[in-house]
Amino acid sequence: MTIRLLLVDDHAVVRLGMRMLFESEPDMEIVAEAANAHDALLAVIEYKPDVVLMDIGLPDISGIEAARRIKAESPDTAVVALTIHEDKEYFFKMLDAGASGYVPKRAAPEELITAIRAAAANEVYLYPSLAKYLVKDYLAQQDTAKERDSLDGLTPREQEVLAHLAEGSTNAEIAEKLVISPKTVARHRENIMRKLNMHSRTELVKYAIRKGIIRP
Questions:
Q1: What pTM does this model have?
Q2: What is the pLDDT along the chain (216 residues), one digit of tens a residue?
Q3: Contact criterion met (CB below 8 Å) for 41 and 73
Q4: Residue 214 and residue 16: Cα distance in Å, rounded?
Q5: For residue 63, what is the DSSP state?
Q6: How far apart are CA 42 and CA 47, in angstroms?
Q7: What's the rounded Cα separation, in Å, for the pair 109 and 171?
Q8: What is the distance, to the nearest Å, from the Cα of residue 72 to the centroid of all Cα atoms in its chain?
Q9: Between helices 128-142 and 88-96, what is the axis angle to 10°?
Q10: Residue closest to 149 by CA, chosen among 212, 215, 216, 214
């Protein structure tokens, strides 16, 4: 399978470097480039890329908001953040916006290629130095009064849906795997969010890891 890429960075020389890197990969094709979030969203609508590689620092709106809009417009398009920011504030906000990867600009080219392939395979890639934030957050959660031994009243079917959601599957993919309708999946998802009092996929991932539903 050829991974169709959209490159988003306001520096032409950075985009050129990325183009040279990815064009040497036989399984990757660059379908478009953009210098700002507005043009990126238009490109997503027109080309429906598999992966958007995007700088967080864009000139019109933040990459965080851009990622949120891209995922709303094209849920099956994965977003990988390429950034100079390595603090947990940006990290968690980007994950909450729906990003499938978070890679610092100091990373080796091989790391970036790995992140793109992981995102295209509907997996999440976190640069090792940043993944520690999820681990620390997980350990902190264990010490809170919210930690319970039960699965908080989730039905067996809701636990199945939760596992697939935490692994990055879309509603349509879950429906196909469980042989139910997407509307039923959406209803299970709403019930899971309500029972767990959670509002984002990142919270669900951390919960699923904490409860042993999926492995980190």
A1: 0.63
A2: 899 999 999 999 999 999 999 999 999 999 999 999 999 999 999 999 999 999 998 999 988 999 999 999 999 999 999 988 777 778 888 888 889 888 988 889 999 999 999 999 988 888 776 666 665 665 555 554 444 445 678 888 998 999 898 888 889 999 999 999 999 999 999 999 888 888 887 888 888 887 777 766
A3: yes
A4: 38
A5: H
A6: 9
A7: 33
A8: 13
A9: 80
A10: 212
The structure tokens listed for 206 are 């951390």
Amino acid present at 172: A
3-state SS, residue 86 = coil
Contacts of 176 (CB under 8 A, 6+ apart): none
Q: 91 CB contacts (<8 Å, ≥6 apart)?
A: 85, 102, 130, 133
Distance in angstroms (rounded) separating the CA atoms of residues 71 and 69: 5
Tell me the one-letter amino acid at 32: A
Q: Which domains are assigned to the chain? A: 3-128 (3.40.50.2300), 148-210 (1.10.10.10)
Q: Quick check: 39 and 52 in contact, CB under 8 A?
A: no
Q: How far is CA 142 from the centre of its chain?
A: 24
Hey, which residues does 56 pair with through a beta bridge? none
DSSP 36: S
